[in-house]
Specification:
This protein is α/β, with parallel strands linked by helices and 255 residues long. Helices cover 45% and strands 10% of the residues. The protein has 9 helices and 4 strands. Helix 2 links the parallel strand 1 and strand 2. The longest helix is centred in the C-terminal third of the chain and has 29 residues. The two termini are 31 Å apart. It binds zinc ion (ZN).
Length: 255
């Protein structure tokens, strides 16, 4: 289960073909409170990809993890220094082009391990998935964590919609890259129970408008590496199940 980018082209040829899956971790460079790095969603997406890859390989698939997509649409965080935001159509075109290249080389499945929940970004991925299903020539799985059924498997804080740089995300970074968490700041951060997902439904368009003047929501001071490790396993299960659901419905269609 070598990363695809570390393979030679001949090794990549071996890794492709029927029974092969490529996993694309998708994150963002985006403000995540005063205690987490801009690359938080990339760290989470890579952890999800790794945990999913282990499960898919155990089912007998050949799995290559792709380099992460690190630039994307991040309009909600644009008011905070360091956040880099692409136009959604750029993101859609990038993901579709990656899928077309993978299909050309015979990969059977593209699994998108996405950890960034900005609504413009999610829409750009939905558009990419529709286009890939229409004509890219490979199976695509994209479990949207912000939607049912997947959201129901995640923590109470996540389900409340206070799901940006709070306990959920901070715990994962504590598990994966503890040296990047400003832990003194984290421990002293007041809770911010404002629901980002409700604010999005109400038409708000930035973290500030949504009630997150420091670019975080939820309960970051409650984060623990144990919760992070458990969550990563759940994210891996979600990716695995989403891929198998797609492969199952493909088998149904071809009957
Ligand atoms: Zn995040």
């Amino acid at each position: 289960m070598q990363p695809l980018a570390a393979m030679t082209w001949e090794e990549a040829r071996e890794a492709s073909g029927p029974g092969s899956a490529a996993i694309l971790p998708v994150g963002a460079i985006e403000a995540h409170g005063p205690h987490l790095p801009l690359e938080t969603d990339i760290i989470i997406a890579q952890a999800m990809a790794r945990a999913g890859a282990v499960r898919l390989a155990a089912r007998g698939l050949r799995v290559g993890v792709l380099p992460p997509l690190t630039y994307t649409a991040a309009a909600f965080g644009q008011g905070f220094a360091g956040t880099l935001s692409l136009r959604p159509e750029t993101v859609t075109a990038t993901v579709v082009d990656i899928a077309r290249s993978l299909a050309r080389h015979g990969f059977e499945v593209l699994a998108i391990a996405n950890a960034h929940l900005d609504p413009g970004h999610l829409a750009s991925l939905d558009a990419a998935v529709s286009e890939i299903r229409r004509d890219a020539g490979l199976t695509v799985a994209f479990p949207n964590l912000a939607a049912k059924p997947w959201a129901l498997r995640l923590s109470e804080e996540f389900k409340s919609g206070a799901c940006h740089a709070g306990q959920f995300e901070t715990s994962i970074v504590l598990a994966e890259r503890p040296e990047l968490v400003r832990q003194t700041t984290m421990t002293a951060l007041p809770s911010n129970p404002a629901s980002l997902s409700r604010a999005i439904r109400d038409g708000k368009r930035s973290f500030e408008e949504a009630g997150g003047p420091m670019a975080y929501f939820g309960y970051p001071s409650q984060a623990t590496p144990e919760e992070g490790r458990k969550t990563i396993e759940v994210l891996g299960e979600i990716l695995d199940e989403a891929v198998y659901a797609e492969l199952g419905s493909k088998a149904e269609r071809s009957k």
